[in-house]
Amino acid sequence: MKTPWPLLLVALGACEPQSLPSREPRILSVTPLSQRSDESRVVIVQLDEDPLFLVDYGQPSARLVQLPQLKLGNSVSVPLDTYLGHGQYQGRVGPISYGDYGIQVSLGDGREASFAESTYVVKRAVSYSFNSIGARRVNESFDITLHVDVKDDLPFSGMAWLQLYKTGVEYGAPLSIGPLTEGENSWPLTVLDPGDDYVVRITDDQGNDATSQTFPVDPEN
To answer: Which of 88, 123, 158 is the last residue of a domain?
Structure first.
């Protein structure tokens, strides 16, 4: 039995991808837009178009022909290997060097789109910890010992802020400290009022922070 020509053409056409769009794609959103340098993050990129599908009527499901690549700066390429529907593509950005990265998406057909609304910000991962702070006395200066652990091999000379809290409320103005070096750092502190539940918190411009344990400050003799 011969297959009629119209039916044969439909069958052949069903195994070919959709025709390629000619217009330039647009990046509608990128979520999230930041991470720490020592972590990996799942990123969702929304484009203003859906991917191309290859439909074979002899198979139970269609398959994607081309998936885009997320490009961060000139050196990082992330496959957007999961399609979530509604123009949303998902990929995972691994640990990368800290800094600000321009955002582009490259489609399999050679077209590219840039995201002008924002950059992808990778914050430097730094870990802080305090030595135990024992009982102190009002108006007597004492040293706070802080340990700094940098999560990369690049030179480090950081600035940070110490904030004293009393019963969970900020006490006094933050103290700018630095430059900090990796390893042990000490800074003097004086408390002017007695109390049983003081803590010290450190924060830096990369969003890293740590809090000491509670310590008492006794009245003067």
So the answer is: 123
* Average pLDDT value for residue range 13-40: 78
Instruction: Using the predicted structure, report yes or no on whether residue 164 has a pLDDT greater than 90.
Output: yes
The residue with greater pLDDT, 46 or 49, is 46
**Contact yes or no for 195/165 (Cβ under 8 A):** no
Name the residue among 107, 114, 73 with its Cα closest to residue 89: 107
Inter-residue contact 134 to 91 (CB < 8 Å)? no
The answer as to whether 15 is a domain residue is no
Structure confidence at residue 168 (pLDDT):
94
Structure tokens at 91: 């990929």
H/E/C letters for each residue in 37-59? Answer: CCCCEEEEEEECCCCCEECCCCC
User: 86, 103, 123: which is the final residue of a domain?
Assistant: 123
pLDDT value of position 53: 64
Q: Distances from the Cα of 202 to the Cαs of 53, 55, 145, 211, in angstroms?
A: 51, 57, 12, 6
Do the strands 120-123 and 34-36 form a parallel or antiparallel pair, or are they unpaired? parallel
In a domain, 10, yes or no: no
Q: Is the dihedral of CA 48, 52, 57, 59 positive or negative?
A: negative
The total of structural domains in the chain comes to 2
Q: Which two structure tokens, joined as six digits, stand for 210?
A: 């740590």
Range of the domain at 112: 24-123
Looking at per-residue pLDDT, the higher value among 81 and 198 belongs to 198
Q: Does 119 lie in the same domain as 134?
A: no
Tokens 């799942």, residue? Answer: 42
Cis peptide before 25 (omega within 30 of 0): no
